Structures are given as C-alpha cells and as structure tokens.
Amino acid sequence: NPAFEHIVVEVRPGHVGLVRLNRPKVLNALNAATLAEIVTAVRAFDADSNVGAIVITGSERAFAAGADIAEMSGKSAADLLADVRLAQWEALRKTSKPLIAAVAGFALGGGHELVMVCDIVIAAENAVFGQPEINLGIIPGAGGTQRLARALGKSLAMEIVLNDRRLSADEALRAGLVSRVVPTERVLDEALSVARQIAARAPVAVRLAKQSVLKAFDTTLEVGLELERHNFYLLFSTEDQKEGMRAFLEKRPPNWKGR
Ligand code: CAA
C-alpha cells in the first residue's frame, strides 16, 4: 500500500490482515509516524469484513526496539501531554478483532508494549523481551508497568522495569507472556496459521470472547463474570449459535454467517 512509508500492509489468504514494521535501519523503532501508520492499518482491518484476525510482525532481527529515542530525546513534558500517542495506544487497545504478534529479535520498550497490546503472542527462539527505559532515565509509558504486573506478577515485573532484566523466548513462555515458541524462520507462518484458524471461526463469538477475556485484566471478578454471562446470553441471539449447534447435532461442519 503506497499510503504507508514505515510499514507493509497486506491481506493474506484466510482473511488475515498483516502489518509488518519496516524501518530496518533503526530496528523498527516506533517514531510517531510509524505508530500512526500501525494504528491506521489496524483500524482499517478492524473495519474490514474480509479480515477476521490481524497479525503484527517485524523482521527477524527486531520486532521493534522501542520508541524512537532520537525523536523523543528533545521532548518536554508539555510536548508529551499534547501528543496523540496516548490516544493511538488506546485505539490499538480497543481493536475488536484478535491481534496476534509474531515476534522475532528485539521487542523492547514501546516495542514490548506493542507486543503486550496484542491478544496472542507467538515468539521466535531468538526473541528478547524487555523494558530498558530505566537506562534512559525514564519508565515505560505505553502500558508496560501495568500490563507486565498483571501478566507476570510483581517480582518479575519489578526486575524487568527497575533493572532492565530481559527475557528470552523460553523465559517469556514460562512467564506466560507468550503462548508458543517456534524456530525463528517459522514465526510468521505460525502466527498466520493461528490467525487463519481464528478467522475461520464464528466472528461474533470471537469478538465477544476477546472482549470477555480482556475484561479479566481491568475489573473485579464479579464485574468480569457479569460481562461474560451477558456476552454468553447475547450469543444466543445470533444465527451462528443456532447454526453451530445444529451442525454439531447433524455431524457436519458449521457454515458461519457472522450474525
Ligand atoms: N530508537 C532509535 N534508534 C534506535 C532504537 C530506538 N529505540 N533502537 C535501535 N536504534 C538504532 C541504533 O541507534 C542504530 O542506529 P545506527 O546504525 O544509526 O547507529 C541501529 O538502530 C541499530 O542498533 P544498534 O547498533 O544499537 O544494534 P545492536 O544490535 O548493537 O543493539 C539494541 C540492539 C540492544 C536493541 C540496541 O539498539 C538498543 O538498546 N536500543 C534501544 C532500546 C531501548 O532503549 N528502547 C526503549 C526506548 S524508550 C520507549 O520505548 C518508551 C516507551 O515506553 C514508549
């Protein structure tokens, strides 16, 4: 797509939207323009009925090495307050379709925060995860402290944020940050395959499933259970629920309509 300078965007077979970060000279550092392009592409896929799941990836050497330090270095607090970045991260968080990260190489700082905004993370054997902001005299600013604490627990989150502890792919797997580790050259194919499988499922159920699981990270158990039950009941108003159960009883594959 010629509209994009820092990313490559395509629809892959099986209704999968693919966003590939493409600033190899700076290890896919997320300057303002790159983040804006990612948000534009993800939003377009989220609105595209031909896309059922979205994969975000980088290169074999780097998923993304963080915010662009050169761009950030001269900024004041007032500049950052007036910046659209916060709204852009919020927009990514509000994506309704599943976001799947295929991570090889460095996923650091804002790059790691981008990984954590994704719903499913597939890691290459060479992946490295971390929040090195402390080395720059700052802290993570795009959700890192909150999502790490929720995903990994206090002690490991503290080591990562306070002392730049980096996790290997296997450590990230054990900590629950990623759900599989695959040989580096396979990481994109693996993520595309998971995305294709999800894109072939009942779309309204997938959407409400994602919404329900995400709720677990930002509310009490009681409120979360209420939302789950609400979504569960809501699905009984869809044709796909009737079709899914009929197909099971008739011993044939379901034919999803997305309504
Ligand atoms: N911003 C801007 N440029 C970056 C960058 C970044 N985050 N990360 C790497 N680059 C550039 C380097 O400056 C270098 O450019 P030159 O070739 O022009 O010198 C090029 O990418 C290649 O990097 P290295 O030569 O450093 O490669 P390496 O293999 O020796 O090291 C690395 C790789 C460990 C990732 C190292 O580049 C590094 O530490 N990068 C910075 C990581 C970091 O601190 N990220 C956090 C940023 S702050 C943030 O993200 C805030 C937030 O929460 C939103």
From TrEMBL:
Q: PROSITE patterns of this UniProt entry?
A: ENOYL_COA_HYDRATASE
Official protein name in the record? Short chain enoyl-CoA hydratase
**Transcription regulation as UniProt keyword:** no
Q: Which family does it belong to?
A: Belongs to the enoyl-CoA hydratase/isomerase family.
Molecular function per GO: hydro-lyase activity
Q: What InterPro entries does the record tag this protein with? A: ClpP/crotonase-like_dom_sf, Enoyl-CoA_hyd/isom_CS, Enoyl-CoA_hydra/iso, Enoyl-CoA_hydra_C
**BP terms from Gene Ontology:** fatty acid beta-oxidation
Which keywords does this chain's UniProt record carry?
A: Lyase
Organism of derivation: Deinococcus yavapaiensis KR-236
What Pfam families has UniProt attached to this entry?
ECH_1
| SUPFAM superfamilies to which the protein is assigned, alphabetical | ClpP/crotonase (SSF52096)
Q: Which Gene3D superfamilies match?
A: 2-enoyl-CoA Hydratase, Chain A, domain 1, Lyase 2-enoyl-coa Hydratase, Chain A, domain 2
